């Protein structure tokens, strides 16, 4: 998973990042809430770890902004030196999912983070397979089949495909894709992602006959669309207009 961290104290920030990367997560860490807000405006993450205080704006203001854009699905954990009951209550009232005080035991932090991610993305934690139309992913053996026929993918192709099919309907930013597939943050513009996506479309036959479309999102990233869900949404919208 890709996790954004806002923490003004450098030592605490490095500790949080170290604990999470050891668990296999990719991290976007900052001490500046405004800078992080700008980053997240053009990026996607799976979770937020916020400090209550901020250098220019506080974590509370950042959370309000991100909730307005991303809704309630994005899990948010406050990790702060401020242990006052008043601010803990305030954090929950503005949409936080959990709150821990620093310093925090690494095992406790891992447990809290995993609990929130499991609640937000249950399919990624509870299932050993992904079944989507004719596609079946065996997550344990990193194997893929289409219409029951095995398809041989490279390690990079498998990671890319599993990422998309674990996030059907969700726009994934380029830096999110790069961090989760290539294991590092995207620093410069590159056509690597586009080349791999184009190849993946062909290898897995991601197209209308198989019920999915891999859609580029202008200047942002990609979204895997389930065409059945899209057609059902359009039908429901049409029915609503007819009854109006």
From TrEMBL:
Alphabetically list the UniProt keywords: DNA-binding, Phosphoprotein, Two-component regulatory system
Task: Give the matching Pfam families.
Answer: Response_reg (PF00072), Trans_reg_C (PF00486)
User: Superkingdom of this entry's organism?
Assistant: Bacteria
Which PROSITE patterns does this entry report, sorted A to Z?
A: OMPR_PHOB, RESPONSE_REGULATORY
Ranges for the OmpR/PhoB-type domain? 127-226
Query: What residues are annotated to bind DNA?
Result: 127-226
Report the residues modified as 4-aspartylphosphate: 51
Residues of the Response regulatory domain: 2-117
Identification of the protein by name: Response regulator transcription factor
Task: Name the species this protein comes from.
Answer: Paraburkholderia ferrariae
